[in-house]
Amino acid sequence: MEEILIEKKLIENVLKPLLVGELLKQKELKPMYSFHIPSYQRGYRWGHDEVLDLLEDLFEFVNQTEQEKYCLQPIVVKRMINNTFEVLDGQQRLTTIFILLKGIKKYLPLTDSFNIQYQTRSSSENFLKNLSETDDENSHDNPDYYYISSAYKLICKWLSEKHENHQDTPYQIFSALVKRIEFIWYEIKEETDAIEVFTRINIGKIPLTNAELVKAVFLSKNNLSIGYSKEDRSLLNLKQVTIATEWDNVQTKLQNTKFWNFIYNGRKEYETRIDYILELICNSKDEKNGYATFRMFYEKIKESKSDIVLLKQLKENNSSLIELEWQKIKFIIDILQEWYEDHYYYHYLGFLINQGVSIDYLKAEYLRLNRDEFTKLIDDEARKLINATNINVLNYNNHYKQIDRILLLYNIISTYNMGDENNWFPFNLYQSDTRSLEHIYAQNSEDVKIDNFENWLIDNIESLKSDEDSKAVLLVKAMQKLLNRIEDVKKETQDFLDVFKKVGIYYQEKIEQIDLKHGMEIEGPEDEIEYNCLFDVHSIANLALLDSSSNSSLSNSLFDVKRRKIIDKDRKGTYIPIETKRVFLKYHTDYPSHLGFWTLDDKKSYLHNIRTVLSKYIK
């Protein structure tokens, strides 16, 4: 019975890391591995950049610790009748490794290799075996040979340059290829149609990801059976379907943009988002070694097969090792889902995660502490991130990131404090690369692009035309004249710059007149610091949070123009952060002097509210 089961296991796809050194083995002075590139694949097409990138990656790797392994991309193969392997995917990298070995052979003459031959080129095997740095007449009219020859010349030149400065480079790379560099070997079972697999892999040219490889490891019945006291094929089929279904459900959950941006604020683009969860579990973020999580799971299962104590425990409980590993993945997802659905955790943990605090660390503390203790830890972490003893001294030019964090937390907590469970801060709209700081009142002509001259004139004419002050009337007339000959103004910009400056001076005079009525007495150093803050155009008292697109559309508009545009965007359904909206509606000023100007009284009220909302985190 055991023999029958073993035979059944052998027909499953083989998925494992395979050292390049294994492919170099010889038998009776002939390579044990031969590869066949079928006609339905395109020929070798790696150019200068792809080859050089691989070489530099390998060079960087061999100079790291000797204990690490480096995973090349998967190579998908099918064993043919003559024991040659038909390559379904990964032939570009496989061929490049072959060419690299030919280059190393100049320095290490006994270097062994494998065989490659292209179905479309009957002489390809001989061509590859006899590569030369001199031009071959076949390489000029044969694209495959041209790219192969070019790659060989580049590799030889690169090795020569490295050898001059680091004489042992060829040996180091060969040694790493033999002992530490591996392909992910994916051998499909014999009855699978090769062309069908090739087509499926190459639709959209999406490479096999860690997640897809780990999923294949989890769904292998050979692996699923580890731990069960007896092997029941129907039970294994059921477990296989269950894990596959739950895996897809997790993937669907991670496709929810709001949930995804709550748990992830990085710039890395994942082909499958469950890769991120696997990285969290493995604590692996190695950009160079892209298949580290697959290797971790593969090695863990491989070691478990020989762990007598573990196998005994599993069999006593009649449970599967794969199921236990899958439960760990689901457990992480369940905790993240719990945070996401909890109104408090969503906002406060959302801020920490958005700012890069480790989810693994937060999860460990969440499981260790009670709710009150965990809440205190959240406050402590937020306080460390804010790191502000006195917000009055913060400046746009010197403390941009710190102000961005403060205003982000300010808006998050203000949203949470509304007390309405229907209001949730949209982290998906305010990732670090989609938000920016907006000057509430700003006047800098250098920031107004020529293409925006016309819109700036239209907006500010609209703002000033209701002002009956004689200076305002003259400014409207001057702006209207510029608008009537806008194309000439764009060519000769000085007239626009002059009017821009006059408008700024007019607004500043009006603001100063209002501010005189709300003077500020200075009684000590703290008052002086706050006074400087209130009159510094780059201080936090004159900054608000906006998404990048809204910021660019408001750039250098006067306060009244910005206010009307903010209201218009809000009316059309554009999300405006709650405290940015309140700034332009003068929500925190008890008795606004003028809706069209950002006054001293408005700044004081705004600054006071920031301190009140963030009282636990700032001075």
Blueprint (SSEs and pairs):
Layout: H1 2-10, E1 14-19, H2 20-23, E2 26-27, E3 30-31, E4 34-37, H3 48-62, E5 70-79, E6 85-89, H4 91-104, E7 115-118, H5 124-129, H6 137-141, H7 143-165, H8 169-179, E8 181-187, H9 194-202, H10 210-219, H11 221-224, H12 233-254, H13 257-263, H14 274-282, H15 292-304, H16 308-317, H17 321-341, H18 343-354, H19 359-368, H20 371-386, H21 400-417, E9 435-439, H22 453-464, H23 470-484, H24 486-491, H25 494-516, H26 525-534, E10 543-547, H27 548-554, H28 559-571, H29 578-584, H30 600-613
Parallel strand pairs: 4-6, 4-7, 5-8
Antiparallel strand pairs: 1-8, 2-3, 5-6, 9-10
Helix pairs in contact: 3-7, 4-7, 10-15, 17-18, 18-20, 18-21, 22-23, 23-25
- How much of the polypeptide forms β-strand, as a percent range? 5-15%
Averaged pLDDT: 83
What is the spatial order of strands in the main beta sheet? 1-8-5-6-4-7
Roughly how much helix do the residues carry, as a percent range? 55-70%
Total helical elements: 30
End-to-end Cα distance:
75 Å
Poorly predicted spans: 1-10
- CA gyration radius, whole angstroms: 33 Å
| Backbone shape | globular
> How would you characterize the largest beta sheet?
6 strands, mixed
Number of β-strand runs: 10
Summing up helix and strand content along with how strands pair, one would put the structural category as alpha/beta
